[in-house]
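Protein in question filed below.

…
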Amino acid sequence: MGSNKNDRVESLEQLEIPESIYQYIEEIPHKPITTEAEEQVEEDWKRFQRHTRKQKTVIIKKRMAILSLSAAAVLGLFISTAFVSPVVAQVASRIPYLNLIFENKIQVKTLENEIYQAIMDKNFKNIALHVNRKEKYIEAMVFNTEEYYKEMKTPIKDMISEILNDRNEGDYEIRVANDPETAVQWSKIDVETDKKIAEIEKTVYEVLGKYHYDSPRHTSGISVNRVNLELPVNEPNIKKIPLEIKEKLKQRELGDLEVKVYKYNPGLEERGGKFMKIFDSIAIGLKAKPEFQIESVGFTNNKKEHFYISIQLVMKSTDPDIEEVVGTIEKTVQDFLESEEALNAIQDEKYQVVISSSDKKKMKVISN
């Protein structure tokens, strides 16, 4: 799609919202954002915009509400304020930037969150927000009546434009689209779909309970079409459990659902816990400042040798300013990771931070 005006979405009537977006959003309260998941959501969002099939997707109303949180959640759901007093500001001036966030001395705003907070403050209804830093566009998708859309289209654009100008990020294209038919359809299927998902969840947890998996930690998305399981890699029944769930769902006439297993290493869980606040501080802090030119920040805890953080820029490796930007990011991250506060949190765990260009070239690796 890019910034091609001919590829702009003016109506959502023909589009099908990809299941992975909803599954990923459902995971957010239970686990942080991985590089792989963030890339998959971005890829599916693009496919969603380009797709022209007329088939309607069965999606419940509550997912429409969750979708309005999606960009803020995927790219940084953090509400923030500036320094609370001149005294705090004076103290903070001597502390590295990311440490200020880590130690809760300041809270910063991502672009996504500032726009979403404005949507909430102005009480705009049923709006899904998506910010694409690489291709420099912002989409506000309105799921409401045509009359409401026509009334609110200009105020929504003006609101986003004002925020961009205040942040000195005015080079985004702003797009606003609407699909009133889907909004009506979702409202009609709400109760029935909720009931079916509740029955699917009951069945899934009934089977998992037999194997002593009673926590939401062991599922990462349940819909009318698919069940995602999170199971330890050393589980002896890792092949049997999804088959048993599928069979029981069929027996109860809940459908022939796909049941997919994602494996995790239980031995790495403790390490992941040590890095969560570290990762959050890096991700929020870098994405809050446009001069860092960040497209995405993700992590994986699946590598045995180290905790891995990926920082991807919107800049190509051939950009004449990329070395300066990478150098600034490297110093910002390194100052934080080598601080006493970060070292106390990380302890003796190993990490690797890779800064990459948008064309996937590794520009810098930071490790201990």
Q: What stands out?
A: The chain is about 45% helix and 15% strand. The radius of gyration is 22 Å.
